[in-house]
């Protein structure tokens, strides 16, 4: 599928992408090594099948909301009208893993009740993006969901099902 999409991209803009950023939802921590071994390797193989010397920088981010972390403002006046942290709040210290590049982002304002932040874990970052750059990219992508006039709870590409170019 990646090979087909890369061919379609090259056909339309006449240039191969130098960086590929993938967002994946529905992966538990126990599956990270399996994703690295199978999916990321399959992406690299697909790139090299187009041209042996084609090795774009790959960034692979897993996002999810099935965690038990809730974020609350330190002072009530710092929260939004429902008592949750402000939309755009990112936490990348204290409660994150000491072994992986991960963070929590509260990208949307809750209409009712306690908001649940999204947890992002970077499995591969060939581009060596700074934490701030990736976190800002993720937050900005939360505003690009076509069916919504507000931000959504996690990065829009993770909502999208990949379709092969032949099915479009």
Automatic annotation (TrEMBL):
Transmembrane segments: none annotated. GO terms for molecular function: nucleic acid binding. Residues 1-160 form the Piwi domain. This is Piwi domain-containing protein. It comes from Leucosporidium creatinivorum. The lineage of its organism: Eukaryota, Fungi, Dikarya, Basidiomycota, Pucciniomycotina.
């Amino acid at each position: 599928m990646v090979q087909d999409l890369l061919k379609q991209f090259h056909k339309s803009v006449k240039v191969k992408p130098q960086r590929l950023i993938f967002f994946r939802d529905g992966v538990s921590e126990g599956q990270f090594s399996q994703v690295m071994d199978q999916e990321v390797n399959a992406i690299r193989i697909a790139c090299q099948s187009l041209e042996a010397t084609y090795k774009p920088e790959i960034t692979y981010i897993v996002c999810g909301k099935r965690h038990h972390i809730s974020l609350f403002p330190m002072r009530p006046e710092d929260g939004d009208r429902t008592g949750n942290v402000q939309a755009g709040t990112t936490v990348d210290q204290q409660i994150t893993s000491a072994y992986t590049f991960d963070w929590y982002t509260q990208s949307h304002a809750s209409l009712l009740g306690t908001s649940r932040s999204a947890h992002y874990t970077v499995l591969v970052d060939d581009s060596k993006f700074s934490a701030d750059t990736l976190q800002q990219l993720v937050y900005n992508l939360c505003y690009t969901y076509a069916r919504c006039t507000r931000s959504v709870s996690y990065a829009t590409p993770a909502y999208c099902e990949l379709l092969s170019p032949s099915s479009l």
